[in-house]
Amino acid sequence: MKPFISFENLSFKYSEEEPRWVLENINLTIDDGSFVAVLGHNGSGKSTLAKHLNAILLPTEGKVYVDGIDTCDEEKLFDLRQRVGMVFQNPDNQIVATVVEEDVAFAPENLGVPPAEIRERVDWALEAVSMTEYREAASYHLSGGQKQRIAIAGVLAMKPKCIVLDEPTAMLDPQGRKEVMKTIRELNKNEGITIVMITHYMNEAIMADRVVVMDEGHVILDGDPYEVFSHVDELKSVGLDVPQPTELMYLLKGAGVDIEKTVLTDEECAEVLYNLLEGQR
Ligand SMILES: Nc1ncnc2c1ncn2[C@@H]1O[C@H](COP(=O)(O)OP(=O)(O)OP(=O)(O)O)[C@@H](O)[C@H]1O
Ligand SMILES: [Mg+2]
């Protein structure tokens, strides 16, 4: 299968004068329909990488292809931006209309999509983020999590194949975070939308099929969550945490307890502990 996204020897700096690359020789492919989480310490280059996906930034060296489109091809810019929707941290900066359904309709209206199809898209997008009952609500009255789901619906109304989310839950409370993560996961599983999600939360990263870890403009780890979070020392050395259950197992292992597998969730952790204690009886 041809990858949906491919970064080929991508290097980038914001200006010629900068002595160091912000991204250096990145080679990465992302399959159609996958859910990839991107982790990395502040300043490691995550947002810079994400902005290459819809040509907000262009490579200084190397190439980025999305669905066969070279992001440098100006004639294809419109096609590219239709395929890749971006969602950022602050929902307030992404809401453009005062009524929810008008907000969701905004982008397709600007594209000249016929009214009947706009209505269909808005219905579908609101349903996909579980916000149908709020369609006539005032956008500014919604909670942070609801606003972020409306921002996602606005992107969905463009019928993108891929959504790139740059810390979409960073400004939300725990409830809002949960709602948004559930929405993102459902869009991936039910609609087959490719997801690239930057996050600082390890419990969000483990929901992805694949985790890519960046440090100082390089990809240093890449694999499924079990693979990546088995590298506890390496993650800590670049200033990252691991999920709490993983951390507990790591500490027990360090104390000499015989633990083989990597655990990510509370349930897996409980099971390992249960079996350990059972074995000691
Ligand atoms: N517009 C810009 N002009 C110049 N340098 C920039 C610009 N944006 C980011 N940088 C620099 O590029 C590097 C990577 O920044 P980037 O925002 O991609 O990191 P990040 O991994 O997204 O960090 P964070 O977790 O804080 O969001 C940093 O050193 C940053 O200071
Ligand atoms: Mg960032």
CATH class: Alpha Beta
Q: Nearest-angstrom radius of gyration?
A: 20 Å
Structural class: alpha/beta
The strand order across the widest sheet is 6-7-8-3-9-10
| Mean pLDDT across every amino acid position | 95
Count of helical stretches: 11
Q: What bound compounds does this protein have?
A: adenosine-5'-triphosphate, magnesium ion
Order of helices and strands: EEEHEEHEHHHEHEHEEHHHH
Helical content (DSSP H or I, runs of 4+)? 25-40%
Shape descriptor reads globular
Low-confidence segments, ≥5 residues, pLDDT <50? none
Q: How much of the residues is beta strand, in percent? A: 15-25%
Please provide the count of β strands: 10
Q: What CATH architecture do you see?
A: 3-Layer(aba) Sandwich
- Compute the number of structural domains: 1
The CATH fourth-level homologous superfamily: P-loop containing nucleotide triphosphate hydrolases
Topology:
Elements: E1 5-12, E2 23-30, E3 35-40, H1 46-51, E4 61-66, E5 69-70, H2 77-83, E6 84-87, H3 100-111, H4 115-128, H5 144-156, E7 162-166, H6 174-191, E8 194-198, H7 202-205, E9 210-215, E10 218-223, H8 225-228, H9 232-237, H10 244-254, H11 266-280
Parallel strand pairs: 3-8, 3-9, 6-7, 7-8
Antiparallel strand pairs: 1-2, 1-4, 4-5, 9-10
Helix pairs in contact: 3-4, 3-5, 4-5, 5-6
Magnesium ion binds at residues 46-47, 166.
